[in-house]
């Protein structure tokens, strides 16, 4: 079916007065032969804004504006006359529901006599509009006509679209509404200005929108267009605009678990332990224990001489993003393996299974540092959970830092582990062996205490793999 617009002309011939009347209908032409059907347009598809291209009240011409309100609700109609060479004149009319209403444009209360003009009508209800013109033929008995139908205007594209970054996760949009009868605006977003996705639809006359839940330090492209439901017409797109969310915040928190504030040999400050409170960080549950024993394989003994044990978790309220987590241990109570065993989960994933600090470090009062990278937080809180299996779980120190770079293709990445105890440490979780094999170029010759030297222990890791001990 091909939708078209049509009108019905009715001519009237009287002595000295002739004229014409037009009626707007919707016609659908059938594809089959001899098919011609007239189909009424649903009320929801009748317009609220109409334009009449011509009108004249000079000489013997009479111009009438004919309005039909097919709905049950009373319509308030603003009629704006645009006389040639003059300022627009606006009149307001009330059209009862289910009725026909006639306006005589020649009246002084309308545009008045002697005017050549165009007309715009805006209603708060769907209406049908036409314009009829009559004239005095000077006594001649002939029939003729002059008439026009109302048309609804095309939608104008929004303009002056601007995007303003207001936070790490929000961009505010604003634009100019150039249409009179849109029903809503459709907003699209793109990461590159090529691939677009609709993100929102906002009501008519809206000129702003806040896009939230975005990634920090990320560029976003936007465009907007108007939409009219009655004829399912879209305007062209607005100008495209681009904005970048504010940079990802730098987060860094070091905790001396179970101990006082401390500044390490590199000048880094470690905070005294504290209980968790919303908006901050801290432990949940547990007790503290400390010794004065010297700790092997470290110059920062105070970080390992205290511990929090029997805890449930540590919580860090952080911006969403990617983080690096360092866990430090030293077994300062037990003097044999198998006496303390526990699991550690970070953000819901278990990274240490059946972890034994004594066995992993290779003895009593020996420092062990584990660094995990690529921890992704999406709920505003980084959770490090401890689950006891034998005696109480414990931790000596924790470091949490933002790591904006994307995680490794292998997921969470093990960056460093204490030197010659690697074979025992990896026994706690065989995924570390696979990660170390995949990332063996990381710090290959680092002999700093607390770091893994791949060159020295490559054969050791390889022997574990060859023995079939890696799942």
CATH class placement of the largest domain: Mainly Beta
Content-based structural category = mainly beta
pLDDT averaged residue by residue = 79
Number of domains: 3
Radius of gyration: 39 Å
What's the quick description here?
The chain contains four helices and 34 strands.
Structure explained in plain terms:
The protein is built from four helices and 34 strands. The protein is mainly beta. It has three domains: about 1-150, TM1070-like (Hypothetical Protein Tm1070, Chain: A), CATH 2.60.290.11; about 160-245, Immunoglobulin-like, CATH 2.60.40; about 250-465, Jelly Rolls (Sandwich).
What keyword list fits this structure?
single chain, 471 residues, mainly beta, Hypothetical Protein Tm1070, Chain: A, Immunoglobulin-like, Jelly Rolls, 3 domains, seven-stranded antiparallel β-sheet, seven-stranded mixed β-sheet, 4 helices, 7% helix, rod-shaped, disordered N terminus, disordered C terminus
Write the layout of secondary structure elements.
Blueprint: E1 2-14, E2 17-29, E3 36-38, E4 49-52, E5 61-69, E6 75-83, E7 89-95, E8 99-104, E9 117-123, E10 128-135, E11 146-149, E12 159-165, E13 171-176, E14 184-190, E15 197-203, E16 208-211, E17 219-228, E18 233-234, E19 241-244, E20 252-256, E21 262-263, E22 269-272, E23 281-284, E24 287-290, E25 306-309, E26 313-317, E27 321-329, E28 341-346, E29 349-355, H1 357-361, E30 368-377, E31 381-390, E32 394-395, E33 397-402, E34 413-414, H2 422-426, H3 431-438, H4 454-466
Parallel strand pairs: 20-22
Antiparallel strand pairs: 1-2, 2-3, 2-10, 4-9, 5-8, 5-10, 6-7, 6-9, 10-11, 12-13, 13-16, 14-15, 14-17, 17-18, 17-19, 20-33, 21-22, 23-26, 24-25, 25-32, 26-31, 27-30, 27-33, 28-29, 28-31, 30-34
């Amino acid at each position: 079916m091909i939708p078209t617009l049509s009108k019905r002309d009715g001519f009237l011939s009287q002595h000295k007065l002739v004229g014409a009347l037009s009626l707007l209908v919707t016609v659908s032409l059938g594809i089959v032969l001899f098919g011609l059907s007239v189909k009424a347009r649903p009320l929801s598809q009748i317009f609220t804004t109409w334009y009449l291209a011509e009108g004249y009240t000079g000489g013997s011409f009479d111009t009438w504006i004919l309005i039909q309100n097919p709905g049950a609700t009373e319509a308030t109609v603003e009629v704006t006359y645009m006389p040639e060479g003059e300022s627009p004149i606006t009149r307001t009319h009330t059209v009862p529901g289910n009725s026909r209403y006639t306006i005589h444009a020649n009246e002084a209360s309308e545009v008045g006599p002697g005017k050549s003009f165009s007309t715009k009508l805006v209603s708060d209800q769907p209406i049908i509009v036409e314009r009829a013109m009559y004239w005095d033929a000077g006594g001649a008995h002939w029939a003729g006509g002059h008439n026009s139908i109302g048309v609804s205007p095309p939608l104008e594209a929004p303009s002056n679209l601007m995007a303003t970054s207001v936070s790490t996760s929000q961009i505010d949009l604003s634009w100019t509404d150039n249409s009179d009868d849109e029903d809503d605006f459709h907003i699209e977003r793109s990461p590159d200005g090529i691939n677009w996705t609709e993100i929102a639809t906002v009501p008519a006359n809206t000129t702003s929108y806040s896009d939230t839940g975005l990634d920090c330090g990320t560029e976003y492209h936007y465009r907007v267009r108007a939409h009219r439901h009655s004829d399912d017409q879209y305007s062209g797109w607005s100008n495209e605009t681009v904005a970048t969310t504010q940079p990802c915040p730098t987060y860094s928190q070091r905790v001396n678990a179970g101990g006082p504030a401390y500044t390490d040999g590199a000048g880094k400050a470690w905070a005294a332990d504290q209980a968790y409170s919303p908006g901050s960080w801290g432990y949940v549950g547990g007790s503290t224990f400390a010794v004065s024993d010297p700790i092997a394989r470290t110059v920062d003994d105070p970080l390992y001489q205290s511990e929090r044990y029997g805890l449930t978790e540590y919580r860090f309220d952080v911006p969403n993003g990617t983080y690096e987590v360092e866990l430090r241990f030293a077994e300062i109570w037990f003097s044999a393996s198998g006496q303390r065993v526990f699991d550690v989960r970070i953000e819901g994933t278990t990274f240490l299974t059946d972890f034994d600090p004594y066995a992993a470090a290779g003895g009593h009062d020996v420092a062990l540092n584990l660094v995990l990278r690529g921890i992704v937080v999406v709920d505003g809180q980084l959770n490090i959970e401890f689950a006891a299996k034998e005696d109480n779980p414990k931790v000596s120190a924790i470091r949490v830092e933002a790591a904006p770079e994307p995680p490794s293709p292998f997921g969470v990445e093990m960056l460093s582990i204490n030197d010659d105890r690697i074979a025992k440490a990896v026994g706690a979780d065989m995924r570390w062996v696979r990660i170390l094999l995949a990332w063996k170029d990381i710090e290959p010759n680092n002999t700093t205490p607390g770091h893994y030297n791949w060159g020295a222990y490559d054969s050791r890791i390889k022997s574990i793999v060859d023995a079939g001990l890696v799942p």
